[in-house]
Amino acid sequence: MHFHHYSLQHLSDYLNEQAAGQHIGACLSQNKNELIVVLEELYLRIGCHTPLTYVVPLGEFAKARKNVVELFPEVVGRSLQQARVVPWERILILELEGEAELILKMHGSRANVLLRQAGKIVRLLNQQLEADLSFREQAGPFDAAAIEAPLAPTAGLPEVMARLNAISPIFEKQFARKIHFLMQQGVAFAQAFRQVQQQALEPDFFVVKEANRMRFLLFSPVEAAQAVRISGIQPALSFFLRTHFQYEHYRQQYHWLEKHLQKPLSKYEKVYQSYRQNIARLESERSPEEIGHLLMANLHQIPPGSEEVVLQDFYQNKALSIRLQPNLSPQDNAQRYYEKHKQRKGKLQYLKSQLADIARKREAAAEKLAAFRQIPPPQELPFDQQGFDPHALKALKKLMKQYRRQEKESETQRYPFRTFEKDGYQIFVGKSGKNNDQLSFQFARREDLWLHAKDVAGSHVIIRQKPGQNVPQPVLEYAAQLAAFYSKAKNDSLVPVIYTPRKYVRKRKGDAPGQVAVMREQVIMVPPVRE
């Protein structure tokens, strides 16, 4: 509801009061499908991406040091004449001097920012939405007569939703829930509609914390919930956007950490139970040593070449059938059972030792999970006028840092490579020919990026790839500098370094340690630099 027609109307009034006459200093983008309009005394942050589309005026904004793109140069230096909302639409238009307009089309997954000059669309923020080039301003449908049409007091939520859609598509489910709630209190539909509409036009807003999301409402929530009431569209939108991103970050990190802490505990528990069952099975089986004793005590009763013999078991005082190897003598058969006993005893000792080790690891994993459980889950995260509980946010952040540090230390211990890090990417460097082979063909994944100084001996270098992302240029350059430094060309001023996905690197039969064949290579020139 933060980009509802009525929300945009409040925002339009705010901009006309606070920003009319101000000149645009720049239009910047440092995130995909996000635009920052820099005015003289405020910033307008516009997000045109899912799952959250937003328009938020900000008093301050931290510009990134890199990866910032300047967009819509045509509007820079122009002043804002007025802001207006297309009737019954989710479209906010910023009218600028010189017949230029920035059109903020807040249509969910099809949201976009359009530049219109002299009545023609000349530029888009999201250029993939080519249909916006033929955008025509048009008021949305609104059927006032449908408000007065009778609706049964017992109508359910689907019927209320259908009636609202008949009035105008801008009225979504939260309007329907509020109106349906009032109708259950005995208020007629038309009266309930006007009450909710009046609340939506008032400058009081509600930011509500639900189980899995934050919600922005133009009226008080229907159900009892953790809600904060805020006066003024600018502080309300700013508070909502901040808490939304905080909550999403907290929720994602919480579930990620919970999964990765629960996984080893489940694994250790499964292995622990498996060892216990194997130990119990071995201990419940008849001792091979006792069978060996029975055979030795009855050698004279065992015919040579027998496959089976029945002897009196003096341990359990009953007859016992014993399987034999016919090609072995009775003494050798007894010795075979003694060997089985020795193997069984060694296996039991090994299993019990492993069981104790797994028990320690299971206990350590359980302690980590128990410490994690002290942090409130997302649905129980305290929320009030100040936002979320800062102690809970800091506690989760601290645990995440501890976990990632322990994982990095564990990986370093597990693999004997030089390890580096750049902008969140892990980089591994081989130490020798055999170590290079281990790095490239045992440790590296197919999609990891492989690097090596061109035409000289040197270390293999691996950049651990992140799924669905391309390795940033600064990370590639840093890894290439490492490849140059850990090579025979380390003293050169500029070194060519080849790189390719690891799947295009192969080991041929007869290749010496560290020697490989490379396909589809690319080359980058870098100076050798130590970390």
Distance between the first and last residues' Cα: 49 Å
Portion in helices: 25-40%
Q: Mean pLDDT, nearest integer?
A: 91
Give unreliable regions as ranges. Answer: none
Number of helices: 11
CATH superfamily of the domain at 5-134, by name, is ibrinogen binding protein from staphylococcus aureus domain
Brief rundown of the structure:
The protein is about 40% helix and about 20% strand. By secondary structure, the chain is of the alpha+beta class. Among the domains are: about 5-135, ibrinogen binding protein from staphylococcus aureus domain (ibrinogen binding protein from staphylococcus aureus fold); about 285-350, no CATH class; about 415-525, no CATH class.
Give the helices and strands, then pairings.
Blueprint: H1 5-18, E1 26-29, E2 34-38, E3 43-48, E4 53-58, E5 69-70, E6 80-85, E7 91-96, E8 100-105, E9 112-117, E10 120-124, H2 145-148, H3 157-167, H4 173-184, H5 189-201, E11 204-209, E12 214-217, E13 226-231, H6 233-284, H7 288-297, E14 308-313, E15 318-323, H8 330-373, E16 383-384, E17 387-388, H9 390-414, E18 418-422, E19 425-429, H10 433-443, E20 449-453, E21 461-463, H11 473-485, E22 495-501, E23 505-506, E24 517-518, E25 522-526
Antiparallel strand pairs: 1-2, 1-5, 2-3, 3-4, 6-7, 7-8, 8-9, 9-10, 11-12, 11-13, 14-15, 16-17, 18-19, 19-21, 20-21, 20-22, 22-25, 23-24
Describe the structure.
39% of the residues lie in helices and 22% in strands. The protein is built from 11 helices and 25 strands. The protein has helices at 5-18, 145-148, 157-167, 173-184, 189-201, 233-284, 288-297, 330-373, 390-414, 433-443, 473-485, and strands at residues 26-29, 34-38, 43-48, 53-58, 69-70, 80-85, 91-96, 100-105, 112-117, 120-124, 204-209, 214-217, 226-231, 308-313, 318-323, 383-384, 387-388, 418-422, 425-429, 449-453, 461-463, 495-501, 505-506, 517-518, 522-526. The strands form 7 sheets. Strands 18-19-21-20-22-25 form a 6-stranded antiparallel beta sheet. Strand 2 and strand 3 form a beta hairpin. Helix 3 crosses helix 4 (173-184), helix 6 crosses helix 9 (390-414) and helix 7 (288-297) runs antiparallel to helix 8.
